[in-house]
Each structure stands twice: as structure tokens, then as C-alpha cells.
Amino acid sequence: MSRFVLALDQGTSSSRAIVFDHSGGIVAGAQQPFEQIYPQPGWVEHDPEEIWRTQLETAREAVRRAHAGPGDIAAIGITNQRETTVIWDRDGRPVHNAIVWQDRRTAPICEELRARGLEPLFRERTGLLLDPYFSGTKVRWLLDNVPGLRLRAENGELLFGTVDSWLLYRLTGAHATDYTNASRTLMYNIFERRWDDELLEALAVPRALLPAVQASSGVFGETAALGGAVPVAGIAGDQQAALFGQAAFAPGMAKNTYGTGAFLLMNVGDRPVASPSLLTTIAWGLPSGSRDEVTYALEGSVFIAGAAVQWLRDELGFFARSADCEALAASVADSDGVYVVPAFVGLGAPHWDPHARGAIVGLTRGSNRAHITRATLEAMAYQTRDVIEAVERDAGVKLTELRVDGGAAANNLLLQIQADILGREVVRPAVLETTALGAAYLAGLAVGFWADREDVSRNWRVDRRFRPQMSAERRGELYRGWQRAVERAKGWAGGG
């Protein structure tokens, strides 16, 4: 009998694979970073072949470290950096580098669509804003700017997918995706659950490029990549997978993932909630008779969170390892009036300003790298509060606690700062790898490794609760300073 489920966690800066047991515990894992490609300011690319190679190697290494073979793996789940766009031919050869979700090159396309009065249409059908973040304008850019691509796409020679689809194709030969990833493309009607011809026409994207859309939990195909047949039985975008991995199955439950960016999702149930500044998205879709059962979420996407710590490490040389930032930030009592606004690729929710750029304000002659490092951690907490205030306003629900995960959630100082800035409890689970765990749960549910969502909920355990220690007066004073700093960063690249 199969003992484990394997999750492939393809992220923005690395590919990981984790083997989980029935209790949701980590048995073994492997991780490989890959190159970040910056052709010009505001552009971010990845090599799809390097994504595939690192993901395959980590999968095989994780299974080896678990002392397992293909017969021990009940199923494979895939979770992925969302929106990142890959186009390849039917032989599985990419025709261009992947355009990453952070990439801002399609801002003029978004502005053109907005000028044509189309944003309300996209908002109404996809739950998304017209922003370079999403896949649709990236596909349009590739078709318009890579010679010969549009004709090949119209002739049915090429395939589009987000990273899950790319990996699935290489693993199984199937051209498919799930509801969560489709809902991030600007091309999928999340209410009628179909690719939308009117949106495709507005974006000038041929329907022949698009993958089939399936439930997030279900068999997509089989792969022999591990040396024997194993079903690929679960797919979800990374943030939706983390919500599932946090067992946030009831409406009103929310999680925040601190990764390259920071992403807050709140389960809003089976009926979507409209929001003027947040995204309405599909949290997951599960098989349920003749029509899949879809759960919706409100999402606030912060583009730069942990990536700002990487910037301090790699570009400014403040410390040798990202983990060292906690001790450096803790070496000062506060940030001494310094604010870091890490708008390196613009601002996401709730501001949605692609022309904002990074800023450090409040510097004095006494400011040092410890103050700037602490201010960078505080920026993650402030940006999360920006999003939570918008979520609570639009959903009409006040969060009593915030469940957290992601790499930076191991930082105790960050989570204490977050609790202080929010004025409510922050809860860290025993297993921080909830993104990979969510993909594992979706795959395991599809093949009966876990019986149902109650089985999954029983696995969720608390590691630590962080309670607010700051006065309401001080909290308000600091947050008002943050809001002033954000205003100074807005519109910078646009001459505003």
C-alpha cells in the first residue's frame, strides 16, 4: 500500500519537492534555486527548461531521501507560482522564456484596454483588475513581439499554460490546468467557469492555445518520471494551495503567506464577493457529482515581501543569509522613524499602482542597517494590514486571528511585529510548508489517501500564537507614518 504523497512546489525563486505522510508530516524534501533573468528594468523572466529540470531533480531526490519508490507514492500534487506565463510547442519545447508574475512590461497593454473602457468587463467576469500581474496580457505581449508566434498560435501549433500546465505537460503529456490557475489569467470567467470568448477577443488570444480546465482534486494523468506509473491528482496555484493546507475550509477563515511576495486569502464560500480593490478568485474546485463544487476567496496580493529581505542580502550586502535578518533587526528597539516601501515592481493590493517604485524615507544620520532591516520586516506587516483592512471592509467580516505560513513565517520577530501592527493574534501552524501540503491534500483526496476534508482538518496543529503587545495609540501612529511613506512612492516611474 502507498505510504506517501509527493508535492511539487514550483516557486518564484526555487523548485521544491516534499514527501508527506498521512499525518501531514514532512518525511523528506529537496530544493533547488534557479536563475532570475532581468532583461531590463521591470522585466522578469525564467527559463522554462530550468524550471522543469530543477523540479524533476528535486522530485526524484525527495523520493530517494524518503527511502521510497514509485509504488510508495499514492499521488503527486502540483502547486506553482501563479500567472507566470509559458508558451511551448507540441513537442514540449518552449518558444520564449517564461514571463514571470512580477513582470511589468505589459502595463501599456493594460492602459490601452482601460482606455477602451474594458476594465469593468474584465472585473465583472474574472474578478481581477487590469494589471500586468496576470497572464492574459503576457500572452498578448508574446504573440505580438516574438516573430512568427501569432501565426503559429492561430494554426494550433502552440500551447499556453501557467507553470502547473507546463509541468503537467512534461510529466504526462496532458494540456490542462485547474480552476485556481485558470482564474488568474484574465481570460477565464470564474462565475460561468469557462474561457470567455469576449475577453479572448479583447486580448487577441486564440482559443487554440488554452488548456482544459479541471477540478483542483482529480487525476490529470499519469507520469513515469519517478520510475513507475504515479497519478498526478491535484493542482492548485500556490496561494490557494496554502489556504487549503491551512484547512481554512469555513467562510471567514484566512491565511497570509510570506514568500517572495505576501498573499492574503479569505474563504468567502460558494458565492463570490465583489471588491473594489481586492481580487475575487477561485479558492479551489472539488469534484461533486455532475458539477464541481467551487469555493471562492477574496485575495490581496503584495508583490514584494521576502524578496525585500533578499535584496538587503544580495544587493546591499547587509547579511550573508536571509535568516540572519531577524537577529540584525532585533538588535535595535525600533526602526527609529525609518520606513521601507518595497515597491520594486509597483504596488499590488489595495493600491494597484504599477508606476510606484521602492523608497526608504525617514533616514537620519543615525540610521543604520539594523534600522533599515527592521523597517523592511515592518513593511511586510504594514502591507498585510493594508490588505486585511480592505478584506474586512469588503467581506463585512472581522478576522479574529490570522493564520500564517511561508518561509518568512519562521521569523519570530516578524510575526510579533505583525501581531502588534494588526492588533490581533497571529497563529503559526506546526507545518509551515502549507503550500506544498495543500497540493498534497488535493492529490491525496483524489485517490483516497485522505478520506475527506475532516480527515485533513484533524492534521492541522498550532506551533505558536503571537499576541499583540503594542498600545493602540502607538500602533496608529506607526501606521499613519507608513501611509505617508506609501504616498511618496506612488506614481514615481510615471512621473507623478
Structural descriptors:
single chain; 496 residues; alpha+beta; Nucleotidyltransferase, domain 5; 6-stranded mixed sheet; 23 strands; globular
Can you describe this structure?
This protein has helices at residues 48-65, 107-115, 119-126, 135-145, 149-154, 163-172, 179-182, 197-203, 238-245, 306-314, 325-330, 369-395, 412-422, 434-446, 453-457, 472-489, and strands at residues 4-10, 14-20, 26-33, 45-46, 73-80, 85-89, 98-99, 158-162, 176-178, 188-189, 194-195, 212-214, 217-223, 230-237, 254-258, 262-269, 279-286, 293-302, 339-341, 359-361, 401-405, 425-429, 462-466. Helix 1 crosses helix 6 (163-172) and helix 9 packs across helix 14. The model has no long low-confidence stretch (mean pLDDT 94). A hairpin with a 4-residue loop joins strand 10 (188-189) and strand 11. The strands form 7 sheets. The chain has a 7-stranded mixed sheet, with helices on both faces. Strands 3-2-1-5-14-13 form a 6-stranded mixed sheet, sandwiched between helices. A two-stranded antiparallel sheet has the order 4-7. It is built from 16 helices and 23 strands. It has a domain at 4-238: ATPase, nucleotide binding domain (Nucleotidyltransferase, domain 5, 2-Layer Sandwich), CATH 3.30.420.40. The chain has 496 residues and is an alpha+beta fold.
